[in-house]
Amino acid sequence: MKTAFFKGKFVPFKQAKIGIMTHAFNYGTAVFEGIRGYWNKNKKQLYILKMREHFERLERSAISLDIKIKYSLEELDDIAVELARRNGYKEDIYIRPLAYKSEEKIGLGLTGIKDDFCAFVAPFGLYLDISKGIRVCVSSWRRIPLESLPLGAKITGAYVNSSLAKAEAVEKKYDEAILLAPKGTVAEGSGENIFIVKGGKLITPPLTEIILPGITRLTLIELAEEELGLETIERHVNLPELYEADELFLCGTGAQISPVVYVEKHKIADGKVGKITKKLQQIYFSAVKGENLKYLSWLTPVY
Ligand code: PMP
């Protein structure tokens, strides 16, 4: 039976329900993570990718909302592995831990409001097309300014901004939306970071663009340097630079590495998936699926 972790124990998924007065449901006062697990058919193993980094980010996010996670990082690791194991998936999965203001109470604020932790897991294949590339629009919504939310925290309430952008993209028949920072520079996708390839280098917006500090973003900076000898420059990116890129891709836990071949009416280079993007995909997938022994330390086996 499908199992969730809820109120301190593993319970049947259907029992993991919150009341309608829950603070987090009313005010968006929860923080969360998305963690992938990759199924390796040959080894008959499910590998959770960079689990510790995700829980460290969850802890940082929680502090920003005055949520005290009552589990240590080691205990969170154990809960995630146990959750994955109990569900018994033999395919790629997505683990969603949440730390949330669980009190059923009307009234804003954070301090003194009870909190809790829960997690669920679901099978998860492709979120965006990673083979022939996607078409993105530039959202008419801007990222929430730096002054309005804690920097780098993955707060559920803030995802209204991402959902509006994604909804607009879908409505306009694009695969995804790019959001600009309030001052007009490029920030990120609705749920992904963005990279440009230009003149043999990678360029990506800095964290000060109010982007989520992506774990995939850092992973790719490392892999590009280590495996391809490519430097990544973190700097402000203006919108026209996207149109003139040699290659363009979005990255994230869900999106993995999604090549972008159109930004609205602008075709990126020849409109095909770029060579460097393709190489990075190959390197990334061999690492996350546990095929490249060099990166086995990124992975936690479930079985
Ligand atoms: N930006 C946003 C807004 C996101 O929601 C995500 C997904 N967590 C990312 C970037 C990519 O982060 P990561 O690589 O850690 O999944």
Written description of the protein model:
- This protein has 303 residues and is an alpha+beta fold.
- The protein has 2 domains: 3-123, Aminotransferase class 4, branched-chain amino acid transferase, N-terminal domain (D-amino Acid Aminotransferase, Chain A, domain 1), CATH 3.30.470.10; 134-288, D-amino Acid Aminotransferase, Chain A, domain 2 (Alpha-Beta Barrel).
- The chain is 26% helix and 30% strand.
- The protein has 7 helices and 17 strands.
- It is globular and about 55 Å long.
- 4'-deoxy-4'-aminopyridoxal-5'-phosphate binds next to helix 5.
CATH superfamily of the largest domain: D-amino Acid Aminotransferase, subunit A, domain 2
Which overall shape is indicated by the principal axes computed on the Cα atoms?
globular
Strand tally is 17
Low-confidence stretches: none
Total number of domains: 2
At the fold tier of CATH, the topology name of the largest domain is D-amino Acid Aminotransferase, Chain A, domain 2
What hetero molecules are in the model? Answer: 4'-deoxy-4'-aminopyridoxal-5'-phosphate
**Roughly how many Å is the radius of gyration?**
19 Å
Number of helices: 7
Helix content: 25-40%
Approximate strand percentage: 25-35%
Q: What structural class should be given to the helix and strand makeup? A: alpha+beta
In the CATH hierarchy, what is the class of the largest domain?
Answer: Alpha Beta
Distance between the termini: 17 Å
